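Continuing the series of single-chain predictions for the mutant panel. This is the parent chain; the variants come on the following pages.
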Amino acid sequence: MQQSTAKSETTYATIIAAAMDMAAAEGIGKLSLGELAKRTGISKSGVFSRVGSLEALQAAVLDEYDRRFADEVFMPSMAAPKGLPRLVMQVNLWLKKGSDEAPRGACLYTAGAFEFDDLAGPLRDRLELGVARWRASLRKTVLQAMEAGHLRPDTDPEQLVFEIYSLIIGVMHDVRFLRDATAPRRMGRAFNRLISTYKSFNEAE
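Parent structure:
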């Protein structure tokens, strides 16, 4: 029984890994159970029995992306002191992940946001929820930086998060579409300049 369960879990992990690669390279909307069956060598019925519907597969892929993002960006940033140091760490780790040119480095949320911006449905709702959660995390860090006196008390957290998000989308565009290897460095300079306009007078000194 345990051997059968372990085999089933391994098969499921194989399917999700292949689906992650496919979604990163082609878009989460391009996932299909039939194509996954071809790529993994598992029968279509075998894929279906483990992931269920296409919608369930898409949700599982985003759950796995969330887990990896937490491991690579969110959790490591928690080691930095609260406030501006943590915000800088979050952005730097996010930048590192988002500027990876390899297909596996693609941000499923950024790509999915453009893919499904004019569509309605559960997948769009799931994508929006993921984006909202991360922006809320950034906003919390900005508020902590304000409370710690690192950022000016008149800082608009929503505005700063919007500007940071815009920089990240810009660097992903230039790295992945324009193949501009200098984009991460440019984004880093832009972020430093942006933060300098929000720093409190004590921090600026």
